Amino acid sequence: MNGEHKSEKVQIKLPAEVAKIMGKWGGHGVRLAAARGALPMSGLNLVMVLFVFYHGDNQELKEEALSTLQTLPAQILLAALTEPQLHPAIIDLIVHLRYEDAVVMQAVLAHPMTGIRSLLFVAEKSSGDVLDMLADHDEILLKSDVIRKIIINNPNADKVTRLRLGWVEPQEDPAHTDQRGPGNKSAAATTQIEETAEADAVDVDECDEESLSKYQQLQEMTVNEKIKMALTGDKEWRTLLIREANKQINTGVLRNPRITEGEVLAVAQNRSSSEELIRVILLNREWVKLYDMKKALVHHPRTPVQQAMRMMNFLSERDIKELAISRNVTQPIINNARRMLTTKKK
Question: Which residue range is the domain that position 26 belongs to?
Answer without folding.
Answer: 16-168+188-206
